[in-house]
Amino acid sequence: MDTHFFWFGNLMVLLGIALLAAATIKVTALLKRLPNRELHYHWQFLRVLILMFIFGYAGFSLLHWGNYHDGSSMIVPTIFFGGALFVLWVCTLSLRTTKVVQTVYHLQKEAITDPLMKIFNRRYLDRRLQEEVLICRTGNRPLTLMMLDIDHFKLVNDRYGHPVGDEVLKALGQLLMRHTRHADVVARYGGEEVVVLLPNTCGNEAHVLARRLHQEVAQLTVPLPELNRPPRPPLTFSVCIGVAGCNASNADANQLLAAADMALYQAKQNGRNRVECCPDLRLAANTS
Ligand SMILES: Nc1nc2c(ncn2[C@@H]2O[C@H](COP(=O)(O)OP(=O)(O)OP(=O)(O)O)[C@@H](O)[C@H]2O)c(=O)[nH]1
């Protein structure tokens, strides 16, 4: 018996088993990164198949141990090795592709998210506002916009410190995300000003939502740090909300923002802690 063939044949099959084992490790790492349930099932099934192949290879190796005498008996071990290499390659590339796609996704999300409030940032708002104005004009859909501003926020910072001010902003961001639809755009407009863009929403609906948000904010509490002082009651705060709207005939991003800003200014002028709508809100953003 040619010992070269003997060792080469056995080695190919054993290396094939090692490559398949490495492939299952890659698939396991991939499974941890997959958010999608259906894809999970597919990759789990594939992992079971690879494990079955490992048993198949091992059985073949035991049955054919020493049965490699010439070049033709090398065909099957070579195919086994090539197949395992192919499986490992595909699994490795799938894992790397998933990592790259997830990194790009996170970077894109970061680029449009406000790091403190965890809502969209001004850049994203500007883009979406232009898009929604176009949809409003061409699709004849009503569009409304709310501008929120925390009352006397400077006092919060001055009295309790900036970290508490930051907690207030975070709590407001979370509340707004909880009480708006997926299609709405909640974005930080400036310091403590937030814009909520409401696509396909008429003036009445926006007004009802604004009043609800206003009440929800009034019930929101932010715990104050104790810092060796006796416990203090949690902080509450209020907001002013300005609401404006447009329809196909008068849709314009800058005018919509200016109208909401004007309504917000009115709310501040009228004593704060209130909702004000731009005077022609019902006409501006009527149901289509
Ligand atoms: N903690 C914290 N404060 C911020 C942030 N951005 C802006 N501010 C503060 O927000 C405050 C805004 O103050 P003003 O514009 O005078 O508004 P206000 O005190 O809320 O008064 P009114 O809006 O008129 O009721 C300033 O003190 C800013 O320093 C932030 O990211 N974190």
UniProtKB/TrEMBL annotation:
Biological processes annotated in GO = cell adhesion involved in single-species biofilm formation; negative regulation of bacterial-type flagellum-dependent cell motility
Query: Gene Ontology terms, cellular component aspect?
Result: plasma membrane
Q: Which InterPro entries match?
A: Diguanylate_Cyclase, GGDEF_dom, Nucleotide_cyclase, Rev_trsase/Diguanyl_cyclase
Cofactor(s) needed, names only, are:
Mg(2+)
Q: Which residues form the GGDEF domain?
A: 141-280
What reactions does this protein catalyze? 2 GTP = 3',3'-c-di-GMP + 2 diphosphate
- The domain of life is Bacteria
Q: Name one GO molecular function term.
A: diguanylate cyclase activity
Q: Which SMART domains match?
A: GGDEF
Q: Which residues form a coiled coil?
A: none
What are its E.C. numbers?
Answer: 2.7.7.65
**Matches recorded under Pfam families:** GGDEF
The UniProt entry, under PROSITE patterns, shows: GGDEF
Enzyme class, UniProt record, top EC level: transferase
> What keywords tag this UniProt record?
Membrane, Transmembrane, Transmembrane helix
Where are its TM segments located?
Answer: 6-25, 45-63, 75-95
Report the CDD domains cross-referenced here: GGDEF
| NCBIfam families noted in UniProt | GGDEF
Name by which UniProt lists this protein: diguanylate cyclase
Q: Which organism is it from?
A: Ferrimonas sediminum
